[in-house]
Amino acid sequence: VAATSIAVTEILNQLNIPAKQVVGIPQSDSYTVPKKYQKTTKIGNAMTPDMEKISTLKPDLILSPNSLESDLSSKYEKIKISSSFLNLKNLSGMYKSIEELGKLFNKEKQAKKLVDEYVREKYQNNVSPRVLILMGLPGGSYVVATESSYVGDLVRLAGGTNIYGDGEGKDFVNVSVEDMLKQNPDIILRTSHAMP
Questions:
Q1: How far is CA 14 from CA 26, 56, 194, in A?
Q2: Can you list the alpha helix ranges (DSSP code H) found in the chain?
Q3: Which residues contact 175 (CB under 8 A, 6 or more apart)?
Q4: Rounded distance, CA 86 to CA 69, Å?
Q5: Which partner from 66, 82, 106, 178 sits 20 to 30 angstroms from 5, CA to CA?
Q6: pTM
C-alpha cells in the first residue's frame, strides 16, 4: 500500500503492518511517520501526493483520508490504482476504518484491540462546559470546528457542548469574532493546521 497521510501511517503501525508492505509514505515538515516506515519512499504531502512517484511504486492500494476524496479519487483513477478513503473525520468513522483495515490485512485481532483501547466510557459531568474550538490556518486566520469534525467529536465524547453544534453536517464553519464573543464559551480550544 501507499499511505498518503501521517494518520494513516500511524494506524498501519498500530496494526503492526510490516514496512515491506508499505511502499509509499507522506512527506511532512510538521509530523513524523512511525520509525519503521521512515526509510520508505516519500510520495509528497497528503493534499497533493506525487502521482508520478505513486505510479512508479505500483502499490495495490492507496490509502488516504476521506476528507481528500473529492480532490484525489479522479487522480487515482487516472493512474489506474485502486484507492480506499478512510473516514478520519470522527471517532466512530476512525474505528470503522481501523476494523476495515484489520480485515484487509488479516489483522482483525490487532484492530479490535486498538479500537477497544481507544473506546472510553463517556465522561459524566453534571455541568457540560460550553466549548469553542478554533482551528488556526496558515496566514493567521481561523475557522470554527463543529461537533461534526474529529476534534469536535472528541469534545462531545468528553462531555462538552460545542457552541456551534454540528454545523449542519459541516466539519468547519466561518464565524465572525463578534459572534464568537457573543457566544461566551467556557473553554476555547485551539488546534493547529497541518501546515504551520
A1: 17, 27, 21
A2: 6-14, 51-57, 69-78, 91-104, 108-118, 150-157, 177-183
A3: 144, 164
A4: 9
A5: 106
A6: 0.71
Give the position of cell 492500494. Answer: 61
Which tens digits make up the pLDDT trace of 21-48? 999 999 988 888 999 999 999 999 988 9
What letter does residue 187 receive in the DSSP assignment?
E
**Per-residue pLDDT averaged across 117-139, rounded?**
73
pLDDT at 126: 59
Phi-psi domain of 180 (left: phi exceeds 0; alpha: psi -120 through 50; beta: other): alpha
Distance (Å, whole) CA 157 – CA 160: 7
**Under DSSP, is residue 37 helix (H, G, I), strand (E, B) or coil?**
helix
The separation between CA 29 and the C-alpha centre of its own chain, rounded to angstroms, equals: 17
| Residue range 87-98, pLDDT digits in tens | 988 888 899 999
Instruction: Check if the beta carbon of residue 161 is closer than 8 Å to that of residue 101.
Output: no
Per-residue pLDDT of 56-65, as tens digits, reads 999 999 999 9
**Amino acid, res. 102:** G
